[in-house]
Amino acid sequence: MKNRSAMLEKIQKELKGKPYLLALDDVWDDDITTWEDLRENLLGMNKNVRCSILVTSRSENVTIVRDTPQENRYTLMLLGDKECWDIIRNRAFQNSSISSELEDIGRDVAHKCGGLPLVANIIGGTMSNKCDRDEWLSLRDSSHWSSLEKNERIVDALRLSFDRLPSSSLKQCFVYCSIFPKDFRIQKEQLIHLWMAEGFLPQAKRNFRQASEDIGNEYFNVLLSNYLLQDVEKDMHGIITGCKMHDLVHDLAQSIRNSKTEDDSHIQVQNEFDGVKLWHSLFLNSSFFHFKDFKCLRVLNFCEAKIDSLPKSIGWLKHLRYLDVSKTYICRLPRSITLLYHLQTLRLLRCWSLRELPKGMKILVSLRHLYITDGRHVPNEIGCLTNLRTLSEFDVGKEKRCGIRELGCLNELAGELAISNLQNVRNKEEAHGAKIWEKSKLHKLRYEWDCRMKGYNKDEEI
């Protein structure tokens, strides 16, 4: 367990002296030493209070190691064909009526699910609103069911859902999710920006005004409706901000990613680093590697890496579209970063040691998303970055090149924006120059100023 002592201390603080039911879900660790140590700590803090521990697992070894009495073990039974069909029908057709012929085919499909609710869920999502008889017959007669009938890998049965994704680019987006570890909380915006950087999102054909982010959002929703992504997390406005991938679905994505068969030629594998095959992406915890060896990189992620600087040679990465140095000790960015003309996303969250951005950032005209925690990290003359869609903080400066009028041309800004140090706005004309009313895609706007400044003690002036 990571940070085991801190976790036990927190549990003891919350539960000490109280009766409790502690649920440990999807446990795979069958190390008896780890379990006995945990049990002793838990039992020791509430000796005179009745407490229980519920463990769920797909491994019989886990129950044996935990010395669970036979009468306290409960083996979940497989679902019946009727239950599997109920799941498939509910997800595929909701309350719509279907023909008896289609229902017969659907029941055959339900039988092939082998009583597994995950398979039924994903199949139902895959066939959502599809009433074509031939399509259901193709699903029923697929050769991928054979592995499930032979009690082999569930992953092969889940491949049915992947095969029916409507485009190769969407398949790329799904497989790319395997780059994250299992049980990882994937941030929706970050995932879409990574897809953009890799070039997985096609240009819109019918509506030329549709942005790549909008296409990425559609792809995300398709994967969600197909149950290939799940466990969504929403903000206070009901907007989905994150999700997870079931570990068996992760196994599917990883198996396709590692496949070298001719059928999977649409899954491009470009680089190999430290034995891990990637696309044009590197996720690193140090800066000790040669940039010149990775000139085709599109994604470079140093988030939480123990680094305090980046080499000047980062400017060699002409194709770089995504750079994340969040939660690092970096105190400055090299001037050569202004040579990254294709950079779309720059993440500088919680870079508390970072003093300022280099001069010349205004020429990064492809920049669409700038994530910062400190408004002082806004580059001078940011008004030149007219493609910018994300800017969470803006610190109004006293000089013209960092004044509030710099916001005037940034009409693509979306999401949330906090404008601080508004006491530096000298008059109404300057304030109007920001043209806030034209930024219709913003859904949250926060104004901040120092009311202790002279001249800002009246509501009218504010």
Fill in the keyword field for this structure.
single chain, 14 helices, alpha/beta, 462 residues, 31% helix, 13% strand, 3-stranded antiparallel β-sheet, 6-stranded parallel β-sheet
Characterise the protein shown here.
The chain is of the alpha/beta class and 462 residues long. Helices cover 31% and strands 13% of the residues. The protein has a six-stranded parallel β-sheet with strand order 8-9-10-11-12-13, covered by helices on one side. Strands 3-5-4 form a three-stranded antiparallel β-sheet. Strands 14-15-16 form a three-stranded parallel β-sheet, with no helix packed on it. Strand 15, helix 14 (428-433) and strand 16 form a beta-alpha-beta unit. Helix 1 packs parallel to helix 2. The longest helix is centred in the N-terminal third of the chain and has 14 residues, at 32-45. The relative contact order is 0.05. The model is unreliable at 260-278 (pLDDT under 50).
Describe the main β-sheet briefly: 6 strands, parallel
Note the overall shape. globular
Quickly give the structural class: alpha/beta
Distance between the termini: 53 Å
Count of helical regions: 14
Q: How large is the share of residues in beta strands? A: 5-15%
**Residue runs with pLDDT of under 50 for 5 or more positions:** 260-278
Radius of gyration: 27 Å
Overall mean pLDDT stands at 83
Helix and strand element order: HEHEHHHHHHHHEHHEEHEEEEEEEEEEHE
Give the neighbour order of strands across the main sheet. Answer: 8-9-10-11-12-13
**Percent of residues in helical segments?**
25-40%
List how many beta strands DSSP finds: 16
